[in-house]
Amino acid sequence: PQELTTVRVQDPRVQNEGSWNSYVDYKIFLHTNSKAFTAKTSCVRRRYREFVWLRRQLQRNAGLVPVPELPGKSTFFVGSTDEFIEKRRQGLQQFLEKVVQNVVLLSDSRLHLFLQSQLSVPDIEACVQGQGTQTVTEAILHYAMSNCGWVQEEEGRP
């Protein structure tokens, strides 16, 4: 059977609304039958700056392979915030769709931890460098087994 990977960026939520350190995070839902992925379904939340970090890492490790662009970080945005958030959501989804179609990028374990664990960026780095408490596979399986992605959905995020 053909390998299929569906990745969706959904459900943008403003965190710390009304404060100076508010930000938007997005739900990333992944469903696949690809052998490249440890877990066949996962659901995590990530914010824009984590995508920026991921793109930088992929770029660093991909050599000459071009890494897709992220939607811009617009400071002069005309229109409503909702419109901006929706445009960004679409851009992030297109970014991930292109990334998961690229064999070279798919071999980067940072990408897998980004998509299939709720580890923070420093924890992803530690894990990839073998300084974490778990291997990359263990971290992904631990998250998959704990079913956090689905539990968070039911309870609303803390």
TrEMBL record:
GO terms for biological process: intracellular protein transport; vesicle organization. GO terms for cellular component: endosome. Coiled coil: none annotated. It is a peripheral membrane protein. It comes from Sakesphorus luctuosus. CDD domains: PX_SNX10 (cd06898). The gene is Snx11. PROSITE patterns: PX. This is SNX11 protein. Gene3D superfamilies: Phox-like domain.
